[in-house]
Amino acid sequence: MLGPADVRELADRLGIRPTKTLGQNFVIDANTVRRIVRAAGLAADDVVVEVGPGLGSLTLALLPEVRRVVAVEIDPALAAELPATAAARVPGAAGRLEVVHADAMKITALPGEAPTALVANLPYNVAVPVVLHLLATLPSLRSALVMVQAEVADRMVAAPGSKIYGVPSVKLAWYGDARRAGPVGRAVFWPAPNVDSGLVAFTRHEPPRTSATRARVFAVIDAAFAQRRKTLRAALAGWAGSAADAERALRAADVDPRARGEALDVAAFARIAEYGPGGDEPPIPPAPASAGATVPEEAAPRHEAEDDGEGAFADGADGEAPTGAGRGGGPGGGGRRGGL
Length: 340
Fold this sequence. Notes:
The chain has two domains: about 5-205, Rossmann fold (3-Layer(aba) Sandwich); about 215-295, Orthogonal Bundle (Helicase, Ruva Protein, domain 3), CATH 1.10.8. The protein contains twelve helices and eleven strands. The chain has helices at about 5-15, 30-40, 55-60, 75-90, 125-135, 150-155, 165-175, 215-225, 230-235, 235-240, 245-250, 265-275; strands at about 25, 45-50, 70-75, 95-100, 115-120, 145-150, 175-185, 190, 195-205, 305, 310-315. A seven-stranded mixed β-sheet has the order 4-3-2-5-6-9-7. It has a two-stranded antiparallel sheet with strand order 1-8.
């Protein structure tokens, strides 16, 4: 694993000068890296996709524990250096590494075996888009463990009724269950950021049983939170065509038109989508507890985002989103060259 001196030596050799202004923060604490790997709950046969491996601290800890690691790195210098770092530090497991030089927000597939887990240290402004994009693009992903800014972590795991519950919370719930997996302090980074970080663990499950596609459900979610202080009757008027049409869809879905988006879970949004534009379809009967459900995974509309005055969160699932998603994430923000 890479210690503080190793990280600084590698950064110096590659000409990387991390600054807080650019959000360049490297993890220099080996215990934190081990903790991330433990929290990910990986098995020996897992195929892990790591976004933004940076200098390779997390990569080195992952390689001995799993069958394969696919590291997606946008920075050409970091992508070129990572195989050599693995060969020097974990020679017995270096052959399990494959580096993909690409922007994680633009990948549509990965080489080799289908990945089963996502483990990454993600920057604030691309964390939600990257996670949603990969869950939509790589259906084989069964679990995830990501490190993000603490505020983003709270939003990702928020439950209905919470003031911070919004687009990231609902869309992530479409794919599975997210939970906080612990805090991460500032002192484990070089340089130390001005914000705290947190771990978010995720387990995939089937989407809600519905006749609506993901694209239609996500369109309802976007509309509901675009004006989150309005009632759903008013907030969904543009989506439905009029306030009266919105009320009709809401009542058909057994949702109070006077409610606000923050009160609804993802299943309620799916019911609303069934009766909106292109809908009016009878809902699919509930499946037995042992039966699986498959929902068409259409491409989600572009530019899906939430902006409630506390920051914007692009969807990124098959749509446009901030670039630089393979540059080694971290609490300092996007556009960074280094990560773990």
